[in-house]
Design a protein that fits this description.
mainly alpha, 7 helices, 71% helix, Rod shape-determining protein MreD, transmembrane
Length: 168
């Protein structure tokens, strides 16, 4: 239990640092940024306390907002996907999630990709809707959501492949 807490604490801190120091300064083509801090929310264990998880998601988004001076939009998007996570898990993994015995490294790659995509796209839609906050600029919201989601999903998949633990 103690090692599990330390692993998640280290993941929390490292993802915040990478997001704030590297990813937020990419601005590819002027509007494409990866938001890899959502990987903490995606990879958080299923069986842990849900209230603590939603609080940690809020704290994660709030810390990113503090460093990026973004006024709470990352916190709102993080809390939304943390709250909606059981729906994405049930849709992506089905009965494996129903029995709460799921190990993220042991499931099919297609299901993992579907789950990551749902979570990232939901996060980005909320994030960019709150950032732009104009119905007349819906095309810009969709454009930023699409391209930033693709970039974020690719990076998240690469990170999970590189740092996955193979149990043989």
């Amino acid at each position: 239990m103690n090692s599990l807490v330390s692993i998640h604490s280290i993941r929390f801190i490292i993802l915040i640092l990478i997001q704030v120091l590297i990813c937020s300064h990419i601005n590819f083509l002027g509007y494409i940024n990866p938001y890899i801090y959502v990987l903490f929310i995606i990879l958080y264990p299923v069986k842990n306390n849900r209230s603590l998880f939603i609080f940690l998601s809020f704290l994660l988004g709030l810390i990113v907002d503090f460093f990026l001076d973004s006024g709470g939009i990352n916190a709102a998007a993080s809390v939304f996907i943390a709250y909606a996570r059981p729906i994405a898990l049930k849709f992506s993994f089905g009965m494996v999630y129903e029995h709460q015995n799921m190990k993220f490294d042991a499931v099919d790659f297609g299901a993992k990709l579907t789950y990551m995509s749902i979570m990232v796209v939901a996060h980005h839609i909320i994030l960019f809707c709150l950032e732009i906050f104009s119905f007349s600029k819906i095309i810009l919201v969709l454009q930023k959501t699409l391209f930033s989601s693709i970039f974020t999903i690719i990076l998240c998949v690469l990170i999970t492949i590189i740092f996955s633990r193979k149990s043989k």
